[in-house]
Design a protein that fits this description.
Blueprint (H helix, E strand, L loop, with lengths): L7 E12 L2 E12 L3 E5 L6 H8 L7 E6 L2 E2 L4 H6 L1 E4 L11 H11 L4 H14 L15 H13 L5 E5 L7 H14 L4 E5 L3 H7 L2 E6 L2 E7 H4 L3 H14 L2
Parallel strand pairs: 3-8, 3-9, 6-7, 7-8
Antiparallel strand pairs: 1-2, 1-4, 4-5, 9-10
């Protein structure tokens, strides 16, 4: 495993998570370098969200190691957390707060103050298209706008690593296009691991594919290792996720 300062920004080595006799993930091992966008694929229940929660320190692993920017997510939790922007699936939000109020609160929790906080709030409001609902209670927003608020909080502190669980869930086609453009742009300087069920999205934003099935990593390669087009990708996805079954 790398040390701080390495170009490896996300590292998983032998990650396992057990709930009694049930293995949610088994021996998940991969590393993602700085400036790469990797898509995390798999059928429902394959272990994607569990792996992402372990990488962010939200869950503890039963075995194995996880590092962000060379920092162990357990023994050096604060240093690792500073590098991560995390968008969980159906992420919790304070529904009585406005996007402006929530981001201000979270910014202060991240030790952002003064002009630095104002600049970052203005940046994420623009990039996530939140200006029209800036002062509206989050509980009154559509699912798509709530997802954009979740993306905004992940970007607020300008993290080096983004871990995004279904980032386009609930968005309309125009919003999906905007989020994909944002991910492509961010991927030029940041390391991104995103979970998605949409193969079109994989081809649109990712350079690498990690495919899990029944808690195991069954493919780690470039886009063409999954298929040259969406039809081939879908066929290989079915083949790899049916094999273990």
């Amino acid at each position: 495993m790398s040390r701080p300062g390495s170009d490896l920004m996300i590292e998983a080595k032998g990650l396992c998570k057990y709930y009694g006799n049930f293995a949610a993930i088994r021996d998940i091992t991969f590393s993602i370098p700085r400036g790469q966008v990797a898509a995390f694929l798999g059928p429902n229940g394959a272990g994607k969200s569990t792996s992402m929660k372990i990488l962010t320190g939200f869950l503890s692993a039963s075995a194995g190691e996880a590092r962000i920017g060379g920092h162990d997510v357990y023994s050096d939790r604060i240093a690792a957390a500073k590098l991560i922007g995390y968008l969980p699936e159906n992420g919790p939000l304070y529904l009585e707060m406005t996007p402006k109020g929530l981001l201000s609160y979270l910014g202060h929790a991240r030790n952002l103050t003064g002009q630095s906080l104002t600049d970052r709030m203005n940046y994420v409001a623009e990039r996530c298209s939140l200006q029209q609902v800036w002062g509206k209670a989050i509980g009154k927003l559509s699912r798509g706008y709530r997802q954009r608020v979740g993306m905004a909080q992940a970007l607020l502190h300008d993290p080096q690593v983004l871990i995004l669980d279904e980032p386009t869930a609930g968005l309309d086609p125009n919003q999906v296009h905007d989020v994909r453009e944002l991910i492509r742009d961010l991927g030029k300087t940041k390391t991104i691991l995103l979970s998605t069920h949409i193969l079109q999205e994989v081809r649109a934003v990712a350079q690498r594919v990690l495919l899990v099935n029944e808690g195991r990593l069954v493919l780690d390669g470039g886009l063409n290792d999954l298929g040259a087009d969406e039809t081939q990708m879908e066929e290989k996805f079915r083949k790899l996720t049916r094999r273990a079954a």
